[in-house]
Description:
globular, eight-stranded mixed beta sheet, Rossmann fold, N-(1-d-carboxylethyl)-l-norvaline Dehydrogenase, domain 2, 44% helix, alpha/beta, 2 domains
Amino acid sequence: MTDKTRYTVIGAGHGGKAMAAHLALMGFPVTLYNRTPENVAAIKARGGIELTSYEGGPHGFGRLERVTSDMGEALERADVIMVVVPSTAHADIARKAAPHLRDGQIVVLNPGRTGGALEFREVLKREGCEADVIVAEAETLIYASRSEGPAEARIFRIKEAVGVAALPARRTREVLAALHSAYPQFIDGESVLHTGLNNMGAIFHPALTILNAGRIESTGGDFQFYIDGVTPSVACVLEALDRERVTVASALGIRARTALEWLRIAYDATGNDLHEAIHNQRGYYGIKAPRTLNHRYITEDVPMSMVPIAAFGQRYGVRVRGMESIIRLACIIHQTDYWRKGRTLDKLGIEHLSVYEVMRYVMEGEV
């Protein structure tokens, strides 16, 4: 028997494979779950995942303890459950996990996008799960990674500091303590409102994709997304959306980072405005645009990131006309109702709460 933390990784995409392999190489017992057996057949046959990495980074064959498409089997021995799937799948994972969770387990969404932990906890409640489980979320995925084959993954970078917050925040210390031996990079994210409202993808991805829709469709994405795509006018729209996000956060008593501040902290990229700062971020050069509009920058970031931020604004008296416009355009382009599909406040279980009650809920777990 081992006294090491037992991890279950939910999801076998690029991030899930990278995480499972890395944890295994660090010596932790790891179970990998994917709902589609065919997608993990090669990993199961080999008994693990071959990981390559940047110079000096983790590499080698990460031998897994178990590979399964049975949720009960995946969770039965887990101490920490790392959910590494698109945020559109969080609610479904919560429904499948609810009957199998037990007291003392920790669930971490990697990442939560906006409202991830709130939605996950609400689904568990509606499914009748009474286990004392801590649900937490990371502000972003700790890895920059890629899937290199059926049983191979590559890590390009491991982020140096990633905020993590539990719901409620008074239990964040327990989560960080459980994760520390594997991930000392995880730091206190203050609350799930902080991690969710500092979601820069909500601002950059949908608007930049939609405002470049014609160019994406005519070229198949053959242009530099953040350089050619961020013209002065596009940057003005991004700045307006960012002001709305920061104002929504302020209405909830939170001081959110501006996009300019984030670019400076994350990439040491500065400028007099967002257009200048983005063009001064050398890492953006060479990144091509999505090849199609049927891309997670819209299909995930609109319903799981922009919709909940806009919903907070509508509920707590902040004008979010810029966000409403982008969401509406996304609905028209994809002929779908992203408001209905998205994380509205009723899905987060907080539609009737005042600002004070929301803060008490996310900090203390009390309504």
